[in-house]
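Record 1 of the preview.
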Amino acid sequence: MQLVCPIPYMSYPCMPYPLYVLPLYVLPLYALSPRFFLYKGRAGVRDWDQNPQGRGDRSMELRPKFNFLCALAAMCLGLGAGGAAFASPIVLDLDFTGADWQTPQITGVHGSGSPGSSPSWASDPGINGDYGGPTRLRLTNNAGGQRGNAWYNPATVEANAAWNAQFDMQITYEVGGGADGLAFHLQEVGTGADTFLQGQGLGSEFLSVVVDTWDNGGECAFGLAIHNNGAQVGSCYDLSGIGPVANNIYTVAMTYDGLGSLGVNVINTGTTPGAVFGQTGVLNYVVDLSELKTATFGWSAQTGGAAQNQDVLNMSGTFVPEPGTALLLGTGLAGLSWRRRRRGPAAA
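->
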């Protein structure tokens, strides 16, 4: 049975899926029932059917309002606790080398002050099928001083809930020894965000999974680094042991458990997606995503004096959508039940 942990870092344990979803069904039905209008009169406890008029009893006037407020509060708590479980997950399978090349689901943001036109939808005749094929999402081309961002725009996600994602990336046509690298980000600035590898400019709440391909001093020349809410988590992990940077297709696979643990595995597939020529194994990081509740995800990349093409080939994964729709549904049910109470039952 699936376990749901909708509010990370709380003291209570994860619970089975139905226990979180049940209030979403039971409470609205109860709130809409005429039996909700129990009140206490002079002759003891009676219900609406026994005394539909009873307007002179002050306790009868107060009881329905009190019951309604209690049910409304319970419904809100139920929606808050069960919202993550109730919402249909976002399941991604984007192929930028095929059907999703030039998809409108990706918003490109050119780096402010940088030359060129990064990012772009590239069709590169110099990259044949043996190296992943010509079409791809190109974050930067192999010119100096480039910066490009690309964001998924159909929905925001609850990054503080459990999720998993992976994407394939490729570096080609290095100039001057290569460039800075690229990063996957979860952030709340939105689809207009313009950032650097380590999440600069993304506010105080974000996650950046960085594939660093340039040693700026004290870093890896080719390594994995995690940046969370403005600070680096642990040290840079050297990726040179699983293969060279250029031309190989690397899969970056990420899994977050909803409780503060992020696992990342970087896999060198050579030039054949699905193959394994080396991998890091799952590297575990402790991160704080508790406030990333309406996150936009995507990538950024940059070049400096040296350059390289920095491309994303595909992405797959599963996320929990931000539960605004479920909350609106609960509010509508509450309003309907209040209207029914005020009107009372029809006369026989």
